């Protein structure tokens, strides 16, 4: 098990759910609402899991490899993207299911998410595979899978200041006991 593979699996499921929405008749508002509800909750959970588990580990790996600047930029961009996705999800909720405005908002959420996934797949995940060992990626995959399983019913969407997020995460990394990120399910109590 590898955290980068789990993230890619989540991306595949997100793409699949957006494609399903495109194939449902607009008059089937109950079905559209159910599929969108599942997708919206999944997008929120995935972003939060990345922010709790993956991005702190990417920053840690980049600092250790003396490539902090590159991974900081990737992380800043990812947190900004997550905020855009959250905002797009909130915009969908402002429209009646099945209307032109609802479909336009869903399309905007799909675009924001697709752009983020493509960039993350090209940059963050690639860098992470290059900077970390498979045992480390496995350890993080276990934490990531557990986080998503514990929060399967959804998480509270909260936009984050990208710069504040990176600063706070790096501060935790500097003060973390050896062997722990002090984040997510790996937090020492």
Radius of gyration: 17 Å
Largest sheet: none
Structural class computed from helices and strand pairing: mainly alpha
The helix/strand order is HHHHHHH
Instruction: Name the beta content range.
Output: under 5%
State the distance separating the first and last CA atoms: 26 Å
Runs in which pLDDT lies below 50 for 5 or more consecutive residues are 179-189
Please give the number of β-strands: 0
Principal-axes geometry comes out as elongated
What share of residues is helical?
over 70%
Question: Can you describe what's shown?
Answer:
By secondary structure, this protein is mostly helical. Helix content is 76%, strand content 0%. The chain has helices spanning 3-22, 29-64, 68-93, 100-122, 124-131, 134-150, 162-175. Helix 2 (29-64) packs antiparallel against helix 3, helix 2 (29-64) packs across helix 5 (124-131) and helix 3 crosses helix 7 (162-175). 35% of the residues are buried.
């Amino acid at each position: 098990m590898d955290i980068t593979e789990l993230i890619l699996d989540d991306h595949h499921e997100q793409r699949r759910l957006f494609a399903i929405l495109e194939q449902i008749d607009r008059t089937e508002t109950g079905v559209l609402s159910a599929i969108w509800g599942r997708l919206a909750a999944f997008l929120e959970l995935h972003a939060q899991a990345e922010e709790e588990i993956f991005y702190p580990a990417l920053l840690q790996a980049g600092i250790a490899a003396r490539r902090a600047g590159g991974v900081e930029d990737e992380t800043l961009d990812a947190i900004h993207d997550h905020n855009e996705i959250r905002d797009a999800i909130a915009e969908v909720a402002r429209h009646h299911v099945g209307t032109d405005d609802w479909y336009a908002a869903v399309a905007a959420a799909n675009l924001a998410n697709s752009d983020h996934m493509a960039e993350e797949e090209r940059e963050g995940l690639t860098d992470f595979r290059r900077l970390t060992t498979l045992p480390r990626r496995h350890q993080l995959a276990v934490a990531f899978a557990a986080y998503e399983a514990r929060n399967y019913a959804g998480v509270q969407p909260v936009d984050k200041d990208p710069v504040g997020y990176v600063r706070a995460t790096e501060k935790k990394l500097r003060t973390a006991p050896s062997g722990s990120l002090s984040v997510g399910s790996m937090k020492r109590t």
